[in-house]
Amino acid sequence: MDIKGQLRRKVWEELMRRGVARFPLPIYGRIPNFIGAEVAAKRLSGLREYRDADVVFCNPDSPQRPVREMVLRDGKTLVMATPRLRKGLLVLRPDKVPSGALRTASTIRGAFRFGRPVRPWEIRVDLKVVGSVAVAEDGARLGKGHGYSDLEYAILVECGALGPDTPVVTTVHDLQVLPAGSIPMTDHDVPVDIITTPTRTVRTGTRYARPRGVDWSIVTDDMVRDMPILAELRKRKKKAGRP
Questions:
Q1: Which residues of 136-172 are buried (b: 16+ CB within 10 A; e: fewer)?
Q2: Residue 46: what pLDDT?
Q3: Which of 175, 166, 169, 129 is closest to 16 using CA atoms?
Q4: What's the angle, vertex CA 226, arms to CA 223 and CA 232, rounded to 5?
């Protein structure tokens, strides 16, 4: 097991040992849900970057469900990635969701019901919220290991939906925050600017560079087949005559 795998295992085990992991269980192999996820979301709502955002992109995992509900309740537009990007992206506008259904709309099933498909070149995101297995105080982040969150970011950048200064935030339990320098990063890994936990806010001041778009050299035929959004993006690039 490599260092990233060891760190993931250590965090999952510590969350279980301390009794702060919650449904869905087991948390191994997941972005882990945790006691206090609502408090971490509330702390996020106090950020200037959140208050200034009209369109918030958020991952579909369980610990960020409170974030997604909060975005809708605050009258902001929510853009959500479907699991593994197989169905692309969904956009949910609060005026299109009944007030009594905002919690339901913040779930994966509810997002498919109340949202509509959107292509990344049709949106402009003001804030990106990501889930994490672990995150370091210098902004280095660990996901589940499949790279979907990093790929989402790269696609959004490639399409102009994200700018180089668009804030990236993660909500995690305090036990998921590791010391600076403890998580190795590669060129396609996306660092985070801000961490919110149930007890604190960390502005990482990260010095890690962000991807400038999709690294097509690592995109396989299987990925293009499983994620139609990649096939569409590739066709757009060819039509535009870009390499």
A1: bbbbbbbbbeebbbbbbbbbbbbbebbeeebbbbbbb
A2: 96
A3: 175
A4: 80
The total number of residues shown for the chain amounts to 243
Q: Are 135 and 176 a contacting pair, CB within 8 Å?
A: yes
* Euclidean distance between CA atoms 26 and 39, whole angstroms: 22
- How wide is the angle at C-alpha 131 spanned by C-alphas 78 and 137, nearest 5°? 125
> Which residue is associated with the tokens 């950020």?
47
10 Å Cβ neighbour count for 208? Answer: 18
Domains of the chain: 3-215 (3.40.50.10420)
Beta strand 194-196 with 177-178 is unpaired
- Exposure string over 209-240, b if 16+ CB within 10 A, otherwise e: ebbebbeeeebeeeebeebebbebbeeeeeee
Q: Which of 173, 97, 164 is nearest to 132 (CA)?
A: 173
Amino acid at 69: E
What is the CB neighbour count within 10 angstroms for residue 96? 13
Q: What is the 3-state secondary structure (H, E, C) of 223-234?
A: HHHHCHHHHHHH
pLDDT at 112: 94
pLDDT tier at 237 (50, 70, 90 boundaries)?
confident
Residue 215's pLDDT is what?
Answer: 82
